[in-house]
Amino acid sequence: MGGHSEAVEPLLGTPGGKQRQQQEKIHQASTLLPFKARLFLLLVSLVVCIFTFQNAIHDLEALGKISNMLASVDELLALVLTLLWVQQSCATPSCSNGGGKKFPSLLNAEIPDLIKGLDSGLFTTVDLVNAYIARINEVNSTLKAVTQINPDALSIAADLDAARAAGDKKGPLHGIPILLKDSIGTFDKMENTAGSYALVGAKVPEDSTVVAKLRKAGAVILGKANMSQWANFRSFNSSNGWSSTGGQTEGAYFPKQDPVGSSSGSGVAISIGLAAASLGTETHGSIIAPAQMNNLVGIKPTVGLTSRHLVVPISERQDTIGPMARTVKDAAYILAAIAGKDSKDNYTSSIPFETLPDYVSACQLGSLSGKRIGIPRNLIPSPLPQSFQYIVSSFNTALGVLREANATIIDDLYLPGQVLMNLGPYQMHVVNAEFISALPRYFASLTSNPANLTDLQSLINWTKSHGHLEHYPDRDVARWEGVLTNTGHGNDSPYFWGNYSAQIYAAGPQGILGALKNHSLDALVIPTWWSATMPAMLGTPVVTVPMGKLPNDGSVVEEKDQRGDLVRWAGNLPFGISFVGEGFSEEKLIGLAYDFEQKTKVRETVKPYVKPKTELRDVVAGRVQKQIAKIAGKWSKDAADGVF
After folding, report:
1. Average pLDDT, the chain
2. Catalytic annotation present for 208
3. Which of 197, 245, 453, 644 could connect to 469 by a Cys-Cys bridge, CB 3.0–4.6 Å?
4. Which of 228, 286, 367, 585 is flagged as catalytic?
5. Which of 210, 228, 379, 196 is nearest to 293 (CA)?
6. In the annotation, is 181 catalytic?
7. What b/e readout covers 176-210, taking b as 16+ CB neighbours within 10 angstroms?
8. What is the distance between the alpha carbons of residues 607 and 53, in angstroms, rounded to a whole number?
9. Which segments carry the region annotation Disordered (predicted)?
10. Is 286 noted as a catalytic residue in this protein?
11. pLDDT of residue 99
12. Max CA-CA distance within the chain?
């Protein structure tokens, strides 16, 4: 999309004629000013007009310029009043003005608030993109959450502003900026690296399907978020959120916080308002784990609800793409945009609906009432480490919220599949075999492949020979080498099917599906710390919601990760609660999670230790100041040229 930067400066982005916009804003803003200020501005305008007329009356050729002068006076008055309105009525990040509008605080801004502000003309998409870019630049040197800002983001935003002004809304996310995990392919000027220099310069032939769907819904692809390199599937001695291309991502709730992974940057960025929402990917916990540790909602969809076309793969039976957002409804907006069948990913043919459920409308108060909720206690380790007892205590309190919402709790369920899972490394062999098969297909799909990657062995060789870039051997390739030595075959091998069948039996009839059926349950609920494994093996959905934080009263002993680089355990670190269901039950899970979220409102009680300061108010004020300076500069030039 082309860059017509001049189009990014409508007065407040409202549809209709420019003169009508100015008149409406003059009327709205002037009512907020003291009477003396309004009178002064009126007199100044009158004096300018009289002076201009008296000088021009002696020069008939100048009379034609009077209307232009009056028009610029009108525009200037509108801009001055707008600036005063912004500065006077919005001294705090989130505040109301006389007309009932407000600039939402970007730390907690919800997508419906942003849509309302864009539709009303309170701010433009260009304003929003500029605000997010400024916020990224404020904190990214510390947190390293974002690896790339889309160089076309502002021109795309300008196009969307122009379309809105013309009454042409592209979709439900028109003008909403979204970040992507850096394994999700985009056919634009950005890289698709999975955090590795091995893929720098590699090009996909088109947008990944989820990105194409976001663009169709009107979203702005703002940039790429950092991630655990190769989705935490290279090393046994690396750290969450580290990549060679992006450095070490850190969480915002404690200095040097482990952001968890592998969708690390996607979580950290949204936790402090660096975009409206993000996409992550999950094979085993990579959406829901960083979502909970970054105080977010995360939806791990059923495998097949969202296409994986042109997303760097690990396992075709476990990989899924889903939203990470500040609220359940925001996550539902994103899921609604990216879900659906895709001929380029045959797993999406299993979607059982002709028309997708309305995930946004599923966000209803009272959704918990009458539901039967099972609590699989044997998924929680026993004996429980001291450090986790506070989380279980908070979970038991959360169950009280469910009971008060008129849900029936069937507690202390026993899932025998948990024991079966410990009898053999089924999942390891399944994921290893799938990686061996999936990686060559992805490499073959690239239209540019500077590293000449063909399969896992070629990737191992490249990484070792470029250790100065890939931090090898400080960060090993032992996981990859183990894939070849411990499994050594693809998912077309008979050995694969034995392991996969055992995995499905343990997580299905002897796990999630058996419990749901045998106890007539609507969902299982478990602390997010222990909710990832069975749904990963089975390919079923999970929704995690903020549940609490570790106390920061000195009672929590700080713990480091295995490298000693990050703090994995400390006061103020968030944790979540997960709603788990059968395949394609996202609509029901979203309703349950939304009801719980609205009854608890935990997210805003957990405060980050670092956050950006730039707000929409600042960007709008800055834009208006530039417009005023532009008009003043033109007047000065005209005066110097003797025009007036």
Report:
1. 89
2. no
3. 197
4. 286
5. 228
6. yes
7. bbbbbbbbbbbbbebbbbbbbbbbeebebeebbbb
8. 59
9. 1-20
10. yes
11. 45
12. 100
